[in-house]
Amino acid sequence: MNFYVMTLFPEMVMGGLNNSIIKRAMDNNLIRIEAVNIRDYTLDKHKKVDDYPFGGGAGMLMQAQPVWDCYQAVLENISTNEGKNQKPRVLYMSPQGKTFHQEMARELSKEQNLIFLCGHYEGIDQRVLDRIGAEEVSIGDYVLTGGEFPAMVMIDTISRLVPGVLNNDTSADEESFSDRNLLEYPQYTRPEEWEGEEVPEVLLSGHHKKIKEWRLQKAIENTKNKRPDLYLKYIKPDVE
Ligand code: ADE
């Protein structure tokens, strides 16, 4: 799977993602992440990419030209790599977008190519967003200084759903949100006793059916206590 990130801060994106599991996934060619610097595409002789908003208002806006030319270069790169011209989805990181969630990640993990567009300053000229047909996506109801962290959050979340990225193939299915709107059960590792605290006995019993039942029970309790909104969806899955 290929991720293209259009950004003014490519080092930030690569620095954030080129570690741990995502780095290993890149090294194993399971995913590819390319951060493309929008500034490289400006025609302005001073390398400017932003200007004041028409009609006034605070801050600066990213201009259409460098964003559009950068997008064209990414599309060309994709069709050169693949020899075909299937238009990839473009996700514009914006607090105004649809809120990102696990189901969206699962759907996006099936794409061959994804383009992330990161704004900075007060946003991007609307004309280029419309022309690109960018889908606005938010990572939550708070405002960041730019789209780089949201793009990193989304790429991390999507990548771990790509087959082979996690060591254990089943672990992405068993965790929070994957299983009928339930959070995870608590987990324990060695030693069996730590500072007077024991691991729940059932987990040491080797009785798989009992362990499964205990975990489901704990997952239900956890969800009810920590996320009553999810718990309601668990007991009434068809009600939105
Ligand atoms: N850019 C600024 N804030 C954002 C948010 N919450 N989600 C996505 N992109 C953003």
**Residues in helices, as a percent range:** 25-40%
- What's the arrangement of strands in the largest beta sheet? 2-1-6-5-7
> In the CATH scheme, what's the topology name of the largest domain?
Alpha/beta knot
SS class: alpha/beta
Which stretches are poorly predicted, pLDDT < 50 over at least 5 residues?
none
Q: In total, how many beta strands?
A: 9
Overall 3D form: elongated
**Series of secondary-structure elements, N-terminal to C-terminal:** EHHEEEHEHEHEHHEEHH
Summarize the structure in words.
- This protein is of the alpha/beta class and 240 residues long.
- It has two domains: 2-159, Alpha/beta knot (3-Layer(aba) Sandwich), CATH 3.40.1280; 176-235, tRNA(m1g37)methyltransferase, domain 2 (Trp Operon Repressor, Chain A).
- Helix content is 38%, strand content 17%.
- The chain has helices at 10-17, 20-27, 64-82, 102-108, 126-132, 148-159, 171-174, 208-226, 228-235, and strands at 2-7, 32-37, 50-51, 61-62, 89-99, 113-118, 135-138, 193-194, 197-198.
- It has a five-stranded parallel β-sheet with strand order 2-1-6-5-7, sandwiched between helices. The chain has a two-stranded antiparallel ribbon with strand order 3-4.
- Helix 4 (102-108) links the parallel strand 5 and strand 6 (113-118).
- Helix 1 runs parallel beside helix 6 (148-159).
- It is elongated, with a radius of gyration of 22 Å.
- Bound molecules: adenine.
- The site of adenine has 11 residues, from strand 5.
